[in-house]
Amino acid sequence: MTNAGAPFRSGIVVLAGRPNVGKSSLINRLIAYKASIVSDKPQTTRNVIRCVYNGDGFQIVFTDTPGIHLPKHTLGRTIVDAAVASMNDANLVCYVVEASDRSVGPEDEEILACLEKAETPILLVVNKCDSQKDKDLPDRVAAIYGARISPAGAVAVSAKTGRGIPELVSMIVKHLPEGPPFYDEDIFVDRPEKFIASEIIREKVLRLTHEEVPHSAAVEIEEYKSPDEYPEREVLFIRATIYVEREGQKRIIIGDKGTRLREIGRLARLEIQALTGHRVYLDLWVKVRSDWRRSESDLRKLGIKEQSP
Fold first, then answer.
1. Do the annotations mark residue 262 as ligand-binding?
2. Is 54 annotated as a binding residue?
3. Domains contained in the chain, CATH given
4. Distance of CA 5 to the CA centre of its chain
5. Structural Rg of the chain based on CA atoms
6. S-S: 18 plus which of 22, 107, 154, 164, CB 3.0-4.6 Å?
7. pLDDT tens across 203-249, in order?
8. Is 101 known to sit in a ligand binding site?
9. Is 21 annotated as a binding residue?
10. How far apart are the C-alpha atoms of 31 and 155, rounded to whole Å?
């Protein structure tokens, strides 16, 4: 379909929803690029990430927000504040829920309380429809949430298989105002490459550790020298530190004789190589920074809380 002669449309669309409902997977499916890491651990996403979808005559800037949850510390409050603030600046909110939902849970109650106050139009997105055999189930799930927020529409999708994605894009475009694109066509995500690299490392920590360790880990890129910036180099050099809060967590991440840390580095290196197209030398360290999740200054240093202007 072409839009020859029609005015260009562009807008900001926020994906909101509880942790682990599949927002990051949906973003990655939409833009066909791994902009957000995914895992089975709650609160995997900590930063607001803007991702760009370019269509014929339109540009959608998706904002992947951290899941809204009941915060237990400064890190949790920072994550929730960022998610709520992003809704107020959007042209449309896509509220993502799951096809298996049977009732409104406590975390969705928190989100609905925010959405009920918002003036931004809301599109209900029922994700994970590939796992449901009942064809009428997405409609019943939409009825559970639709009674609270009067959405502008509802669509059933699967981030896993791509089902319903074209219909979702088509419904979003109807809510975009006329205006020029925000970003050039070759930009997919508003975060630098080294941020994506740090998130890939953290994703491997999430994958290979359990219980409290994943939530206590943060990754800081200390040095990042790419052949794109230094043409004399043949290898992308990355020196990164994984911060945890306790000595015991450090020992868990390092593992017996360093086996777990080497595996984290191996998996991260392969994925960063695939992302950048460069051979990668990854110099990975683990250090203790006590109670960093409760420290405003540590959250700023680690890039989780935006610096004040």
1. no
2. no
3. 9-174 (3.40.50.300), 193-302 (3.30.300.20)
4. 35
5. 20
6. 107
7. 899 889 877 677 788 999 999 999 988 888 899 999 999 999 999 99
8. no
9. yes
10. 18
The answer, as to whether pTM is greater than 0.85, is no
256 annotated ligand binder:
no
| 130 is known to lie in a ligand binding site | yes
Q: How many Cβ atoms sit within 10 Å of the Cβ of residue 30?
A: 24
**Per-residue pLDDT tens digits for 11-41:** 999 888 887 888 888 988 888 766 665 555 5
Q: Cα-flanking dihedrals φ and ψ of residue 283, to 5°?
A: -100, 105
pLDDT digit string (tens) for 94-120? Answer: 999 998 888 898 888 888 888 887 788
277 known ligand binder = no
Residue 135 annotated as part of some ligand binding site: no
Q: Answer whether 52's CB lies under 8 Å from 188's CB.
A: yes
Contact criterion met (CB below 8 Å) for 109 and 93: no
Residue 63 annotated in ligand binding: no
Q: Using DSSP, state whether 117 is helix, strand or coil.
A: helix
- In this structure, the number of other CB atoms found within 10 A of the CB of residue 110 comes to 17
Q: Any binding-site annotation on 42?
A: no
- Find tokens 């997105």 and name the residue: 125
Consult the annotation and say whether 68 binds a ligand.
Answer: yes
